[in-house]
Amino acid sequence: MASSSKSEMRKEQILRAAEKIFARKGFHDATISDVSREAKVSDATIYEYFSSKEELLFSIPGKTTRKQLEEIEAILEFLPRNVDKIRCIIKRYFWFYDSHPDHAAVTMLILKQNRKFLEMPAYQDVQEMSRLILRVIEEGIAKGEFRKDLDPYLVRASILGTIEHLVIRKILLGKPERLIDLSEPLADLLIQGMIPRDGEKVYHIRLALGSDEHGAEKPTPRKTPAKSDRSNR
Amino acid sequence: MASSSKSEMRKEQILRAAEKIFARKGFHDATISDVSREAKVSDATIYEYFSSKEELLFSIPGKTTRKQLEEIEAILEFLPRNVDKIRCIIKRYFWFYDSHPDHAAVTMLILKQNRKFLEMPAYQDVQEMSRLILRVIEEGIAKGEFRKDLDPYLVRASILGTIEHLVIRKILLGKPERLIDLSEPLADLLIQGMIPRDGEKVYHIRLALGSDEHGAEKPTPRKTPAKSDRSNR
Amino acid sequence: MASSSKSEMRKEQILRAAEKIFARKGFHDATISDVSREAKVSDATIYEYFSSKEELLFSIPGKTTRKQLEEIEAILEFLPRNVDKIRCIIKRYFWFYDSHPDHAAVTMLILKQNRKFLEMPAYQDVQEMSRLILRVIEEGIAKGEFRKDLDPYLVRASILGTIEHLVIRKILLGKPERLIDLSEPLADLLIQGMIPRDGEKVYHIRLALGSDEHGAEKPTPRKTPAKSDRSNR
Amino acid sequence: MASSSKSEMRKEQILRAAEKIFARKGFHDATISDVSREAKVSDATIYEYFSSKEELLFSIPGKTTRKQLEEIEAILEFLPRNVDKIRCIIKRYFWFYDSHPDHAAVTMLILKQNRKFLEMPAYQDVQEMSRLILRVIEEGIAKGEFRKDLDPYLVRASILGTIEHLVIRKILLGKPERLIDLSEPLADLLIQGMIPRDGEKVYHIRLALGSDEHGAEKPTPRKTPAKSDRSNR
DNA sequence: CATGAATGAGTGTTCATTCAT
DNA sequence: TATGAATGAACACTCATTCAT
């Protein structure tokens, strides 16, 4: 995982220390000395690798998001159904945050609300991840797996929002200990809101062999195509 | 809204200034001088009303959450259907954050991830609000409006999580300008995931029709009753 | 003791509060609020009576020293022997500090080392007191009660210095609880150093007579073994 | 005297500056900036060496007292008579305060009345010094050099008290310029109060044996009429 | 006369950052 | 490359003091 050059190892060592310290104390309450102590280097050494405390913070995500992105993309290729892709994404998020609690804390408690972070290159990866989810949703809609009237942006917001909410709960309250256990039920819940009512109906009808009492009524309760504000990119 | 005594007015004046400044600069980057300048009082005066910068921050929510809670509760009484209650809650949240952007920023970007805030009395109100939502969900399940296999905690997480996600987006990216416009589509989306499926309905009908391969006991496609971890209180 | 006018009573009330507070916390660590709280008046009221915190401090001695001075002078008149005058002065000092511990603390710990206090009128009284002692010593020398070769200034320094040293010990260490018990032994000790030696006396006799080691008269005035309070470690 | 390591030299430099500034302005009226300016370092540098202003103050005595103690002890070994030991101690005290006026001011005006200082390690040295004096007195009593009925604690109080009184006079009033000139007369005075009347008498008799040119005019072994510095008003 | 309310002026302390070695 | 040493720049907080009521 860490690069092999000695210099790169030092950098990793500092980054891991920073991640740990920032996760525990928050960005402002953590001092460079805290980090250097944890990393077992001097304060000045940190400045050999990072130009400022802030840059150190923004360097923590590093390639992590991108790597996650790539791994997820690789897996998704093998999942023909978009429902399963959604399911996979949720699972992956939870698995990642479960196994990287410090990273989770830095990301969710510090970076997510940092205006400057939006301009950092690392944020591009976050955006790409986000775009991937959007694509999966749009694709699902196009393929008819998901309801036509879905606002993909809203769907994405509900997926990411719920995940984030649960991750933050875990960080701050310590519960649930294993997010991963929530991934199936959560996927079920969210997907229920996404799949077509009739599509499902048809499926049942097929199973039911000729039972079509409710036939033509497409009972989608809300006709409004939920266009909403598509600009909420 | 503001208390009438002169002293209380000063306090309100300072709180409003603090809300504005903290919303724009964040807690750590804002100085007491910034706040006192905005409030048109001296630095020292702030300390007449609040014992520390942190106490000033934690005083910003004040009675706001409680008031929202009470108003929502008052309205919910008139909505017999829990679907509408959910819809109303979402709408109210968005309306509130739309009309109180500074409060939104302080709440979502500063307080929500502050560990100490969890111990402040104001956080109790947040929790009660949260409990109200949970109750509405549980009630809906009990009444049969929502699917029996829902995990109410998970549903609540998806409601609050999505709202928060969208509010933060608005704060940081400025889009969408009006969250309120998202409330109907979002309610639709979330509620879709909560109400019993037509498919299930059909399925039940089928059962009545004499074809009963898998019987009444297993009416849901997903067998796992999505109990998830109920401990994520 | 306190003047009768209402205003004068207020002043006394504040002074007593200040004395108590300054004694306990020291001048700098005590705040005007501490004093006003103790005196049960408002901060501002203190400024009605004293122009500044420092003036308040310098007003604490008030007429106390002068009164002591006058009382001592009155008594000394009745003591024809200067040894007894010295004895009386020491006793009086200890009695006063024993019965006015807060005054003792303010005087010994705060005022005594305050350069500005030297210019205050109240310091005049201290000086007069000091001069009185000097006079008693000089008079004793002139009368032949004390050794001719004494440096009266040095003698005074040893009297006052020892008293101060013991008072400060009591204030800081709490021991001895009663200074007054030390007054006799201390007077014995100091007076021993002041009165003409037997040896000298005898020597003079020898010169006159040529014989006689020292005669029968062992004039050591105090036989008391000056056990005093051994606990004032 | 100063430690050799560069860091120790900086520390010494700061301590000397602090001693000078505190001596002139007092602890509370002196600012860290005053000290840092005098020491020609930055404010922050002071905090590299001392954790607080108060710790800086308490560090001023350092090893000084202990060193004095050891040097005095070394000398006392060569003085068989305890009278001379007392004499030596007084002389040493005066010599030290004469040559270290800033140290004297810090010790006598600031530390001596500081309750917290009593808990500092440096105060242990002061106590040991004090115990040394006590031992000399007790030994003198045991050896019969001093009167059996002396209270050693009281004697010590009179020795230290007188010294302190005179040192403070010098600091505050500037007089006498040279304390050392007072050491002989003071020692004479104090010792007079300590030695046995008869023992001394015998001694005089021996001296007198036949040589009586100067008879009555020069009755004291010490010729200096203890005029001392009469200006120490 | 008494005071609640307001503040100016000040200060100890922190810490990210630099740089000579 | 690594760091010990030094510091500039800030800032939260305190408190004696004022003054309108």
Protein architecture, described:
The structure is a homotetramer of 233-residue chains. Chain A folds into 2 domains: 2-56, Homeodomain-like (Arc Repressor Mutant, subunit A), CATH 1.10.10.60; 60-192, Tetracycline Repressor, domain 2 (Orthogonal Bundle). Chain A is 67% helix and 0% strand. Chain A has helices spanning 6-25, 32-39, 43-49, 53-59, 64-76, 82-99, 101-111, 121-142, 152-173, 180-194, 197-208. In chain A, helix 5 runs parallel beside helix 8 (121-142), helix 6 runs antiparallel to helix 8 and helix 8 (121-142) crosses helix 9. Chain A binds a DNA duplex (21 and 21 nucleotides) through residues 6-7, 10, 31-33, 41-45, 47-48, 52-53.
Supply database-style keywords:
11 helices, elongated, homotetramer, disordered C terminus, mainly alpha, 0% strand, Arc Repressor Mutant, subunit A, Tetracycline Repressor, domain 2, 233 residues, DNA-binding
